[in-house]
């Protein structure tokens, strides 16, 4: 995929979830620096006012809520009118985190998360597929996660949303190949981000209350330990998505190589001991065992 910095030959990219502090924000700047015409979107477009790069054409900011079909269709129509009915790259980045033990989840919040992480992507693909096909060399970039591969404790529903996204992308890749649309899933490891900024605590009534202190100390911040700088991540992802032939899955971010190695060569059970120890589940087993002995 070649790019040009001027005129109608500039490749176009739409990125969802470009609020400051996230990877969408950095990816918008990186695509922009590579000469693409960038449509940066967020539910609150006023959050994007400083998405500019000196010496380059201004980015175009659009309001977009992937959970509302009317918003998605309005963005589609706006971009079609600006580009002559074409879009080269769609980056499905908008995401929502939810870190709660499986037995403690609020189903309403889980549904809200799936609306963003899974159904939002499906809406975007359905509505923008004609524009991507019209480009003659379209790409769909889905921002997945290593949590969709490994059993990351206390994130079962978030992990499930990412696993669903991975599976969706795998099939979508085959279905859109005849139309010269490539689909790439980014298996994202630890990256500096504000996606998990909401602090949650294990409640006293939870069966995990005995390790509430470990959860409070490690779960919310673990993904940020040794995390890859967001701009480095953006450069790697953008470079991969601009190649003539992209990878089906592209692993990047902290711990992504280790996750790939374990999953590929050691089997799923290999994660269990590491993660149980890391997040206090081994300690919880000991506590429960000791309580049974005392009774």
From TrEMBL:
GO molecular function, one term: triacylglycerol lipase activity
CDD domains given in the database record: 17beta-HSD-like_SDR_c
Keyword terms, alphabetized: NADP, Oxidoreductase
Gene Ontology cellular component list: endoplasmic reticulum; lipid droplet
One GO BP annotation of this record: triglyceride catabolic process
PROSITE patterns: ADH_SHORT
Protein family (similarity comment): Belongs to the short-chain dehydrogenases/reductases (SDR) family.
Protein name, as recorded: NAD(P)-binding protein
Species, as recorded: Mycena albidolilacea
């Amino acid at each position: 995929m070649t790019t040009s910095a001027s005129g109608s030959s500039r490749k176009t990219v739409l990125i969802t979830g470009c609020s400051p502090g996230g990877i969408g924000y950095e990816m918008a700047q990186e695509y922009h620096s590579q000469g693409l015409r960038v449509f940066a979107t967020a539910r609150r477009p006023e959050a994007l006012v400083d998405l500019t790069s000196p010496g380059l054409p201004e980015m175009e900011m659009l309001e977009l809520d992937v959970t509302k079909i009317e918003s998605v269709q309005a963005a589609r129509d706006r971009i079609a009118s600006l580009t002559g009915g074409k879009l080269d790259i769609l980056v499905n980045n908008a995401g929502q985190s939810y870190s709660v033990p499986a037995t403690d989840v609020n189903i309403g919040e889980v549904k809200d998360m799936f609306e963003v992480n899974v159904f939002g992507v499906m809406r975007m693909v359905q509505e923008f597929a004609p524009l991507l096909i019209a480009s003659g060399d379209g790409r769909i970039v889905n921002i997945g996660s290593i949590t969709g591969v490994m059993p990351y404790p206390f994130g079962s529903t978030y992990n499930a949303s990412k696993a669903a996204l991975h599976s969706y992308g795998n099939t979508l890749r085959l279905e859109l190949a005849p139309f010269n649309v490539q689909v790439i899933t980014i298996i994202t490891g630890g990256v500096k981000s504000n996606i998990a900024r909401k602090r949650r605590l294990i409640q006293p009534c939870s069966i995990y209350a005995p390790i509430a202190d470990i959860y409070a100390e490690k779960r919310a911040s673990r993904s940020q330990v040794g995390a890859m700088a967001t701009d480095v991540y953006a450069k790697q992802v953008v470079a991969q998505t601009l190649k003539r032939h992209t990878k089906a899955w592209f692993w990047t971010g902290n711990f992504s190589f280790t996750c790939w190695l374990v999953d590929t060569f050691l089997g799923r059970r290999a994660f269990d001991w590491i993660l149980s120890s890391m997040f206090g589940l081994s300690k919880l087993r000991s506590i429960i065992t000791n309580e049974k002995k005392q009774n």
